Every structure is written in structure tokens, then in C-alpha cells.
Amino acid sequence: MTTNGGFEPVFCTIVPPHVLDKLAQHEDPALAGPARQTLERDAYERTHRRLTTVIGAPSVAPPREAAEEKPHRTIYDARHHQDLPGKKVRGEGDKPGKDATVNRAYAGLGATFELYLKAYQRNSINGEGLPLDATVHFDQNYNNAFWNGEQMVFGDGDGEIFLDFTIPVDVIGHELTHGVTQYTANLTYFGQPGALNESMSDVFGSLIKQYTLGQTAAEADWLIGAGLLAPRVTGTALRSMKEPGSAYDDDVLGKDPQPATMDHYVRTGRDNGGVHINSGIPNHAFYLVAQALGGHAWERAGQIWYDVLTGGELESQASFADFAKLTVAQARGRYGEGEELQSVLKAWEQVGVPST
Length: 356
Fold this sequence. Notes:
The chain is α+β, with helices and mostly antiparallel strands. It is built from ten helices and ten strands. The protein has helices at residues 17-24, 29-55, 100-120, 169-183, 191-213, 271-274, 280-293, 300-310, 320-335, 339-351; strands at 12-13, 73-77, 87-91, 132-136, 145-147, 152-154, 223-224, 239-240, 249-250, 254-255. A six-stranded mixed beta sheet has the order 1-5-6-4-2-3, covered by helices on one side. Strands 7-8 form a two-stranded antiparallel sheet. A two-stranded antiparallel sheet has the order 9-10.
């Protein structure tokens, strides 16, 4: 269920519109063509998502296995067409096939399910055993992956700028976490609440990768989408939580525009008020908390963020300051006056967000 009176009609992609806009203007048709096609498809899916929300999405009954807290995954193949979900190619418990993309999608859904269940006792993204569906090989040269409110969809990339979108497990975790937000705080996808929505997906996407790799906060790279950029691109990932603004600096993509602090907050009407840009600020705050506490970031730092996201007090229109104050309250309530609370207070101070 949602705590805020109905689902927000959100269509969430991993590649920000401002990146695709830049590509679409390139003089090389091999770069511009796929970007324009992706933007057009995203616009269609965004409208479809809004209509689905108004009309009502088909209800999905949890499978019987949900009571046993096990994933129920189904992978479909669009075969480079646009019809969803496509042909079923792997179900829960089926052995891996020859298609590496199918296998990665299946594993990524499982990794996301496991992190939420083992770390936070959450049974799938809605807490009630929701089946996890994903479609791979969507469209031709499609430069994105998205959660449409009902399922995951992955493009293969154009091979020039982006590779297969199932490669980074944190991309899968990021998009599925939009589903968790949809079923809990239901953060409005515009301005600061929209940036918080994006940040939640980056935080838990990163935690899913760290959990899968068994990494501590110190060992993690804190990159979102590492391995997604093609060799010709000068960059390491889509975003960096450790150093927002440093993920790429490329002659085609331009420079990563994310700020790390409120001093460089970007005011824009594009990208729903800069949701993929200003998310760098709460992203960096989480990184600072995780680094200060050490160990596994999904434990104490992740627990505080999860408590706020799912606790029922985070309003759909929450600002950064609203969210920060709730993390302080949760840190104090769960851990007392110790290092957890002090780390949270210091992190928000460092990024310039008032938390008291």
C-alpha cells in the first residue's frame, strides 16, 4: 500500500533525459539516431504510465510461494520489438539459458529481492510478495532501462555510448527500488521530492550491488551504472555517490552535472526539475554516513534510510530538509545518541541541508 493516498504516475528511467538530449543533438547519426528514438519511446511510455494510473493497472495476485518469502521471477524477450511483456523465456527456478542478458536480468531481480528480504524483512518490492517481471531486448538500440509501475524493461544499448542495460546489477536494483518507493512514500516525481525519489533508487541500487559482492562501505566504488558506458566514452558510470559530478567528462555526453552540496543546487525546469541532477546531494549525504559508520552500508546507514522511506512519516512532497530531519529522528530512535546519530547530523551539515 501507499501511505499517501494513491500512486504517483511515475515513469522512471536510469539514463537521465539531459544525457539523451545531448546525444540527440550530435552531428553523427549513429549517436543521435538511437538517442532520439529512445527519447520518443520514453515519451510514449511516460504517457502510457500516466494513463494506466488514471484508468487503473491490472491487479497482480501474489503467487502462493509469496507466503514462503521466495522470489517469483519471470523474464520475457521483446525480440527487439516494443510490445510488452514479450515472449516468456525464463521462469522462477528454471536453469540458466544461453542468453546472458536473460540470465543477468534473472539474477539481478533475485539480488534485489534478497537484499530487501534479508536486510529489511521486506517480501518483494511491495512487501507482499509481488511477482518480479522483466523484459529484455526491448526495441532496437534502445538506450535505457525503466520501471513502468508494473515491470522492469531493459534495452540493449546502441553499442556506441551504452552497452546492455542488464550489465550493472545496481541499475536493476535502482529501477526496482522505484517500485518500493511507489508502494511506500510515493514521492512526487518533481523537484526535491523527485530528486529524493531518484536518490532512494541510487542508494538501494548501490546497496544491492554491495550486498551481492559482499563489500564494505570502504571497498565499494559508489558508482551507479559502472560497466554501462561503451569504451569510446570518457567516464566510469552514470553517477558517483562518492564524488557527484565526476562520473563522466566526455566530448559527446558533456560533463556530469551533479552537485554534491546545496551550494551548487541546480534550478531547472528540465528533467522534472532536475531530479537526476540534484539527487547527487542526498546521495552524497548517504555516502558520508556510510563511510563514517564503516562496515556494511546496508546495515546501519541503510536501515536508517529504509526506516524513513517506509515508516509512513515521509510526505510525498518532502523536501531535502524534511527527509534529513526524519533520518535524524530515526537514527536517534533506533540507535540513541551514539555515532549513528552524529554521523547523520554531520553528513547533512556537510552537504548544506538543515536537519534540525
